[in-house]
Amino acid sequence: MTDTDYTLTSPLAKLADNASALLGLTIIWHPDSQRIGEQFMASNPDGQVEINRFLPLFRHPGKDGLPLGYGGISRDPVRISRDGYDNILITPPTSRMVVEVNGEEINAPVALNREQLEAGVILGLGRAIIICLHWMRCLPKHNPALGFIGVGSAAIVARDQIRQVAGTELPVLLLGETGTGKEIAARAIHAYSKRASAELVSVNMAALNEALAAADLFGAVKGAYTGAQNARKGLFAEAEGATLFLDEIGNTPGSIQPMLLRVLESGDYRPLGAQQDQKSSARLIAATDQDLYSEGFNQALLRRLESFIIHLPPLRARREDIGVLLLHLLSTSKLSNEIGTSLPVALVSEFANYDWPGNIRQLAHVLRRALLALQLGEVPQLASLVKTTHKAPSSVAQASIVTDSKFPQPASPRKKLAELSDDDVLRAMENNDWYIQGAAQELGVSRPSMYKLLDNHSQIRRAEQIPTEEIRQSLETSAGDVEACAALLKTPSEALRRYLKLVEIKKD
């Protein structure tokens, strides 16, 4: 496998889609938290899997297999039959054990097609154990990469790519929706590289002031621009011998893009006002949630950045990882000290069935709200933790062949901006925790169009236009929850998060 196999022009992804996939069963939740993330791979393409208290054997990579073993699971099995066309039939047992498919209790066989399995099917057993049925395109294996959590094939492949490219000097482009872990991937690449002893230097390109962006990146000599009393060291100079992470590369000012292209081509750059070029030895990692092919981005720069591309899929496309992600987030949260890992199973089921427009970042914040509610003795429900009006309908309404897919939701038809009122825009932002991507999908508009709607909205503000003290007070009121703070301030969550890093307001 060569590095070029992972560029956008590679046929690798198409080959993987067309390859014969294994039916994977991953434990999302179990009364014994150590069992979360264990898997069983059904290797027979047209066979039958029976799930009861004693079979099959689930295992972590390299560990011995164990049955579910929980007393609330019936000895009479749930049968999962797969045909030669990759359709499956789930047949509940004759016992009284409650069986749920995608959050809905079933009492008769339910048929699902390959596409529905592609998005992950959530199987609940006895209101105690939750299993995800999904396709696996590689065998489970232990290939840790710093902070990048997951047991499904998408996570395994991403970690392999992180480790592969870390040993090279190639520039890397990380693509994925907001909240999918692009910064975590960048830090992992740096940590496994020869430059790991140096500090990773990060810059959010969306937060750069266009007038000062060149000085911020490349430095400036004394007197090079108005108000410059001293020479200024740029980020490329700070990243000498290290890694420079350019987050939100799609928001790079147009005047800066040719300068970045020159650095990638020759390593040369010139500080503002300087007479001579300087040489950069920084290794570049860039990340974006935008489509760089349709946003007017410098295509020559894109060709240089795409030497090695890692696609980070949205959480809704790796539903099998939700259990281990919850476990990881609980283990790193101070709020979980009082309750451990004993989340209500019904809440975990809702988490597993939700589409998470804000991805892992949103999952972390919603879990934090759930822990706060549990500390107060409340029984949290997803509807009270995340505002949503577009939860997909159940895919198990019939006990025959199901043709309406629950996941993913069909894309909304494109709308003209003139058709949308300020109330429509405000409601969509509120419904999606003030995340722009989710609101754009709900309204059926592109992301650039969504930015125009926000800029023209009478009530929605830019984070940098809000007084610092008002932001500080809102953070205190929302207990440091950025999404809750964004709702109070009526400003997009992503922009607020970037601004908080820029002005260093503490989120205690």
From TrEMBL:
Q: Which domain of life is it from?
A: Bacteria
Keywords from UniProt, A to Z, are:
ATP-binding, Nucleotide-binding, Transcription, Transcription regulation
State the Pfam families in the record. AAA_lid_14 (PF25601), Sigma54_activat (PF00158)
Lipoprotein found in the keyword field: no
This protein's record includes keyword RNA-binding: no
Where the record annotates domain Sigma-54 factor interaction, the positions are 148-372
Q: What is this protein called?
A: Sigma-54-dependent Fis family transcriptional regulator
